[in-house]
Amino acid sequence: MPGVIVFAEQRSTLLELTGEGRKLADWLGATLTAVTSDSAQEAALDAIAHGADEAVVLQLPAGQPLETAAAEFAALCADADLVLFGATLRAKGLAARAAARLGAPLAAEALALRPQAGGALEVDRMVYGGGGIATQLLRTRPMMVTIPARTFPVPAASPRSGEVRVIAVAADARVRVVAQRPRTQQGTDIAEAPAVVGVGRGVAKSEDLALAEALAGAMGGAVGCTRPVAEDLGWLPEDRYIGISGRKVAPRVYVAVGTSGQVQHVSGVRDAKVVVAINKDENAPIFKHADYGLVADLYTALPALTAELKKLLG
Ligand SMILES: Cc1cc2nc3c(=O)[nH]c(=O)nc-3n(C[C@H](O)[C@H](O)[C@H](O)COP(=O)(O)OP(=O)(O)OC[C@H]3O[C@@H](n4cnc5c(N)ncnc54)[C@H](O)[C@@H]3O)c2cc1C
Hints:
Layout: E1 4-7, H1 11-28, E2 32-37, H2 43-49, E3 54-59, H3 70-77, E4 82-86, H4 89-102, E5 106-107, E6 110-115, E7 121-127, E8 132-138, E9 143-147, E10 164-168, E11 195-199, H5 209-219, E12 222-225, H6 227-232, E13 253-257, H7 263-266, E14 274-279, E15 292-295, H8 298-313
Helix pairs in contact: 1-2, 3-4, 5-8
The protein binds flavin-adenine dinucleotide.
């Protein structure tokens, strides 16, 4: 059975994990198996081209959630050294169930993996709501780790061949999916946008979000927000709030507008290339996380910045 297994339901995450999994499999002198569910079946062949030795598709019975595959997935992992999961909600559920069945160690939401002597794996994880990084050592096999999307780059493809196996998952009569609705997306996805303007409670009324929209528009970007703006005020959909319990973004520029800069929020913008903060309080913690800071009232700063950018970028 395989030494390293990677699992993800999305093609891009599967390929990212395949790249990292390949390195770890080579370190262990072991094979790499890429596993996906039937919703991303076509990704199985891509995973082989991107470094997997073989691929497995978990064929779920109609109307059954991913967790139903826990028994089959745990059986697949029983002799593995290491299993990496793309940290989506559903895959995290599968990881927890598989780890519980096997009594395996599971490190959730890892930021970095470092192979150690003797085949152990050192893992960095964010803890205390993003306030610290814990380094943990996994030794017992199979070592299991969930990893957020976009942690690793997608490796280059090369002509490779490998077997694609299909494992039919047995139905679980206790669980049934009764409906599925696609999440409605308004505007550009903040996780994909090259620039994000993140608004906080410094914005006084929902109509004033137009100021942030105008700045984001001038930068070809999207508007995100802090949790209270989405959850308490309901001014923006929940898929727009950024942070430890919200979305992670990695734009080229993140402009924090009227956000205090609490750790739970800024942990979601760690991967932004440049952070610009606009806050009228010069002691606001956001300035500690910013590359550029502007102590100003957002109501004067945003229109001025937007006008300048429009002049510059046309
Ligand atoms: C378990 C847990 C998880 C959490 N997860 C998240 C998360 O994922 N994401 C998240 O965002 N939060 C999260 N929070 C909430 C987080 O702790 C903060 O409360 C929140 O981020 C603060 O939002 P804010 O910056 O919009 O508001 P505030 O903290 O109220 O800051 C508003 C800022 O606006 C400035 N301001 C006011 N008026 C103006 C003006 N006219 N011009 C310029 N600046 C102005 C003020 O100086 C202030 O700094 C979480 C909290 C907990 C307990």
